[in-house]
Amino acid sequence: MQQSMATGEVRPQNNNVVPFKTACEIANLSISTMRRLIQAKRGPRVLQLSERRIGIRRDDLDAWLIGRNRDEVG
């Protein structure tokens, strides 16, 4: 179980890894935009799945999206 710092709620940890293209679709960003954000150290943490494939843990992606929304609103 993982506790959310923002709300204090406890939720199960989701360490599933989503492929990069799927992560872009979830974030509603183009592949090139997501690559630029990651290169600029402003994107979610990525995992090297193989020599030519990267992925993102679903928890990392969700946390990054929540942080992005918080930055845009506040």
Structure write-up:
The chain is α+β, with helices and mostly antiparallel strands. The chain has a single domain (2-73), classed as Orthogonal Bundle (Multidrug-efflux Transporter Regulator, Chain: A, Domain 2). It is 45% helix and 18% strand. The protein is built from three helices and five strands; from the N terminus they run E-E-E-H-H-E-E-H. The strands form two sheets. It has a three-stranded antiparallel beta sheet. Strands 1-2 form a two-stranded antiparallel sheet. A hairpin with a 6-residue loop joins strand 1 and strand 2.
**Class by SSE composition:** alpha+beta
**Quick check: average pLDDT?**
87
Helical content (DSSP H or I, runs of 4+) = 40-55%
Strand order, biggest sheet? 3-5-4
CATH class: Mainly Alpha
End-to-end distance? 28 Å
Q: Write down the Rg.
A: 13 Å
Compact overview of the structure:
It is built from 3 helices and 5 strands, in the order E-E-E-H-H-E-E-H.
Which descriptors would you attach to this protein?
single chain, 74 residues, alpha+beta, Multidrug-efflux Transporter Regulator, Chain: A, Domain 2, three-stranded antiparallel beta sheet, two-stranded antiparallel sheet, 5 strands, 18% strand, globular
List the helices and strands and how they pair.
Elements: E1 2-3, E2 10-11, E3 17-19, H1 20-27, H2 31-39, E4 47-48, E5 54-57, H3 58-73
Antiparallel strand pairs: 1-2, 3-5, 4-5
